Amino acid sequence: MTNFYIDLVARYVHILAVVTLIGGQVYSSMILPGALGRLSSQESGKLSFDLLRRQPAFVWGHLVAIVVSGSVMAAPRLPDILAFGTYGVVLAIKLLLVALLLAIAAVNSFSVVPRLLRLMATGLDNEDVRDQVRYLTGLSNTLVRLNIGLGLLIVLLAALLASL
Known about the structure:
By secondary structure, this protein is mostly helical. It has one domain (2-163). The chain contains five helices and no strands. Helix 1 packs antiparallel against helix 5, helix 2 packs antiparallel against helix 4 (86-122) and helix 4 runs antiparallel to helix 5 (127-163). The chain is elongated, with a radius of gyration of 19 Å. It starts with a helix and ends with a helix.
């Protein structure tokens, strides 16, 4: 009976983390920019800076929860995974996509966002700095949207795995 509760908690954490991560990314990349555009450039800049500063902790906290809970859920199926039947193949594809998602998140969190924050901290008085900020903002949004698509594809594979 203990395995039942461990699996239940792992599934709950996994689903909750996936939903809030993808939902947060959709909100921050598709809804929030429109709202920020209605603020003055100074207010928008301050809010964007604060949100960007918090983004890596939000993303990586969720990703760690997803990887740990996913590992707990996969452990009992280890014989199926090692047999490399249908379940193992689908899981392998899912894990490759998760690895790609993690790599993209790492580039965004540890390269693009810190560069963006450094530029924003210097002020946006210089046209070259504003151009770099626009470029990095676009790159970050592209990476986030790519991860949204990967996340939705991974959810589809998870649904397939649940049916096997």
